[in-house]
Amino acid sequence: MRRQIPTNKGNKQMADNQSSDVELDGNQSKIVSSSNTSVLKRSIAETSKLPQITSSSSPKPSKLLQLKYLSNTSDLPKLRVLSLFDGIGTGYYALLKLGFDIEVFYASEIDKDALTVTKHNFSDNIKQLGSVTEITKKMLDEISPINLLFGGSPCSDLSGVNHRKRGLHDPEGTGILFYEFYLIWEYLNGKASRANTPFYWLFENVASMENKNKDTISKFFECQPVVLDSLHLSPQRRKRYFWSSLPGIAMYADIQKDMYTFDAPKLDDYLEKNLDRQANVEVVGTITSKRSCLQDSKSRNPVCQDGKYTGLYITEIEKIFGLPAHFTDVGDLSISSRQKLLGRAWSVQVIMDVLRLLSNKFAKK
Q1: Where are the catalytic residues (predicted)?
Q2: Which active-site residues does the annotation give?
């Protein structure tokens, strides 16, 4: 299916029938009728002028330490969430841990293993919408209002450690999926502005991306990202960019390091003590989708057991990500399959800390 991708925020040229179209192939797209076209099937001219972020969608940041969270939130609206590139449901899990009253949680995910894990852990509480490339304006109208949109598009083609990365515009890569998030964000943000309803959003991706890609994303969202590192909340270095309208997030990013420096978790606290496993280091590097990911000098074989140096168990990795042990131990999933799911997931500790900024905006149970 030919799908229109905006290539520059300021580009005012051409319409749907001109040659700036690109193709998305494989499992990511299917032909839909002209009366129910994907959010992405629009002209560059339509997306050339981004909507100004209104006060209803992007409150001015306030000092995190001065936020007074309401003890009685019964009069506040319940959360209606859309999670794109949902993975194994870490966003939903974080909201549950924070005690938010979730009216409905919609998600877009196509990985079969990820869907198996979320189905096992959350039953039908997550309403799956299918591929992000198949979400249409009609679907968005049907599930609206949405007052929280979040997600992180695949980072492999943006990551600085991938020497074969394709960037944001290659139709053969996954980086181009950022535009799927952006155009859904644009549509929902516009609906919320017109209806004067609350709308908060968060987009996450790897902090090692090239500056040109970071600048492109920032131009589309008309804001700069904050940098957050799970190092301050877990024994893993995992630096990520967050573009967001959550109230106070800019101030939070400034003080995060100072808040947790003196009480940062250590790897030893996450190991299986019954097996006499001891940490050789306090923190490890970024855990990716590959079992061999921790090969830098500071992270290689970070555990000592029975006098031998070894790697992390998959249950220990789950706990490092803020999940219960065996969270991904579903069906007959292999260790490598579980590692792949975890390597693509959000750090629950970080996303909980960020979403906590909404504690005085939405109801809690």
Answers
A1: 155
A2: 155
